[in-house]
Amino acid sequence: xxxxxxxxxxxxxxxxxxxxxxxxxxxxxxxxxxxxxxxxxxxxxxxxxxxxxxxxxxxxxxxxxxxxxxxxxxxxxxxxxxxxxxxxxxxxxxxxxxxxxxxxxxxxxxxxxxxxxxxxxxxxxxxxxxxxxxxxxxxxxxxxxxxxxxxxxxxxxxxxxxxxxxxxxxxxxxxxxxxxxxxxxxxxxxxxxxxxxxxxxxxxxxxxxxxxxxxxxxxxxxxxxxxxxxxxxxxxxxxxxxxxxxxxxxxxxxxxxxxxxxxxxxxxxxxxxxxxxxxxxxxxxxxxxx
Length: 290
Description:
The protein is of the alpha/beta class. It is about 35% helix and about 20% strand. The strands form 2 sheets. The chain has a 6-stranded mixed beta sheet, with helices on both faces. A 6-stranded parallel beta sheet has the order 9-8-7-10-11-12, sandwiched between helices. Helix 1 (about 20-35) packs across helix 8, helix 4 packs across helix 8 (about 250-265) and helix 8 (about 250-265) crosses helix 9.
């Protein structure tokens, strides 16, 4: 990569950021596409988000990604916000405009693109979401927007699930999200659900942890999607597969949220073949052979 006086800069703000795969993805895209842009990371403390965004604009930085714990905090520093990101209440991508940055949520775009690529259709689908954090909230909005039949939102603390259900149901003017305590999963009626695992349970090095260990639960699931990508095959995925279901991890979600941000910053369309090349680079870096 030839860095010169015309090279545009993008980066990631968060804390921690040292583990991030984002520089590999974005710099690989620039190299493949021949775009003069470089990407790095910036560790930003919680009380410095406003100053970081103001400084980035002053330094003519083209765009920023935002990761934990700043996805909500950064909203107060934006010039504009995309309606979807506003509904979700979280921003992970800043795009430079006159006078500041516009905020987007490409996390959810990445999830939807990766699910679509795997043949997962949300319209008319019955869904179970495990967890009630920021990712769960975004996914609940996505399911409602794409016409899911119903969504059972399970969380250890049912109050958090109720808060998300109230917001999504109010926004859509119908009772599509059904909050439930994880302990009450046996009350879910029928079978044949898409289940999306949004918690950090099972994240490396706790590879054998799982939100629900009862094998009978997985008889409900025809497809499982775990937003975790390390380990590459989580305990949740193994339990889904053991009962005959399909299972996917979050690595393509990671890839496609980055691709969506890259497209916004550079006003380009990244082809599937280019995305596949970067995906192979990402897997190689992670030591994944499948």
